[in-house]
Amino acid sequence: MTTILLTGASGYIASHTWLALQSAGFDVVGVDDFSNSSPGVLDRLRELGGREVVFERASVCDAAAMDALFERHRIDAVVHFAALKAVGESTRQPLDYYANNIGGLLTVCRAMVARGIHRFVFSSSATVYGDPQRLPITEDAPLTATNPYGQTKLMGEAILRDLGVAVPAWQTACLRYFNPVGAHDSGRIGEDPRGTPNNLMPYVAQVAIGRRSALSVYGNDYATPDGTGVRDYIHVCDLAEGHVAALQRLFDSPGSLTVNLGTGRGHSVLEVVRAYSRASGREIPYQIVPRRPGDVAACYADPAQARQWLGWQARHDLARMCEDSWRWQRLNPDGFDA
Ligand SMILES: NC(=O)c1ccc[n+]([C@@H]2O[C@H](COP(=O)([O-])OP(=O)(O)OC[C@H]3O[C@@H](n4cnc5c(N)ncnc54)[C@H](O)[C@@H]3O)[C@@H](O)[C@H]2O)c1
Questions:
Q1: CB–CB of 34/10 below 8 Å?
Q2: Which site among 78, 95, 129, 212 is 20 to 30 Å from 253 CA-CA?
């Protein structure tokens, strides 16, 4: 059996990827420090996967814990999800973001290199494109960071490129995610944000369920069809399959790659609100408020490279993303800690 270590394993995207990897025949070992997730996820993964989960609670910044983990488990490849991800928080606490996101990456890579493990999948982000000059966005677009979180993704990509030069056997699949939304169709796992959601769909979900009174739409004067911001929403289960395809590619052929994981379609905030309202059968009250600094008008992927190199493409449309998100929200109004 081929064994994959998932860091940040109890988080939103990793938990869905865990199930996809098991279905594809991989063994999974998970590690997380629960800084932004809950142990309750593991019971759900056990139930959905129909087998015991192999999991360790530790920080990826803890070199001794990472060494011990790699000693205990025979790992063939790593998917590195563990990171802090709130853009606004990153501008207030830059040192925490650099320490965790860069420190954790270095610690995991060091432990791997010491043991001759060379296959690495990195959670990058469309945020590395900043305010894109051309749409759809191709992987060769100019890269920039407008906040410390984005900077940690840019630096992470650079570190992995340099490591690939120094260690010729090293292979990275750098996956630039667009906007992951939705949930597993069982309604048993999904996104469980702590505090006020930073992203649109979990916020809309909480308005639909009655936990929040109304959505604030930041600006309706962008150069987009209805004036509200346009993003490339991608179903988290499609994203999970993208990781399976990336790992298969690393095992099948030499070399590294960088690909966008998006649908190639942009949807405006108001389109999301209408689709969610249809999926939930509930009205979603909203008010237009001034633009938020740092937000871009539109951002969507050219997904051709992922199709060509990974044989992967997204399958689920916005209606399905909203239906699955709503099922998760409705069945778990208080998330995993209910
Ligand atoms: N969700 C998005 O919109 C999005 C978009 C682009 C990229 N990403 C990236 O994808 C990855 C996963 O994101 P997510 O949305 O699933 O976030 P998430 O917060 O749900 O998952 C991240 C997990 O990492 C864990 N973690 C953080 N620091 C850790 C540490 N030092 N040691 C061990 N575990 C640690 C957290 O507890 C959490 O369970 C992150 O790297 C994120 O930056 C997310």
A1: yes
A2: 129
**The token pair that represents 218 in the structure block:** 């930041």
Ligand 1 center to 207 CA (angstroms): 24
Say whether pLDDT at 218 is over 70. Answer: yes
**pLDDT at position 338:** 66
Q: Are 301 and 261 in contact (CB under 8 A)?
A: yes
| Surface-to-core class of residue 38, CB atoms within 10 Å of its CB (0-12 exposed, 13-18 middle, 19+ buried) | middle
Active centre residues (catalytic): 149
- Strands 267-268 and 27-32 come out as unpaired
Q: Which atom of ligand 1 is the closest one to the Cα of 34?
A: 37
Pick the closest to residue 279 from 319, 315, 318 (CA basis).
319
Query: Region 294-319: what's the mean pLDDT?
Result: 97
d(CA 299, CA 282): 28
Nearest to 263 by CA among 131, 126, 91: 126
| Residue that is written with structure tokens 């962008």 in the block | 222
Residue nearest to atom 7 of ligand 1 (CA): 125
On the question of pLDDT at 230 being above 90, the answer is: yes
In this prediction the pTM is 0.98
Ligand 1 pocket mutation pick from 7, 12, 129 by most atoms within 8 angstroms of CB: 12
* Pocket lining: 14 vs ligand 1, CB cutoff 6 Å: yes
What six digits make up the tokens of 195? 């505090």
Ligand 1 centroid to 97 CA: how many Å? 12
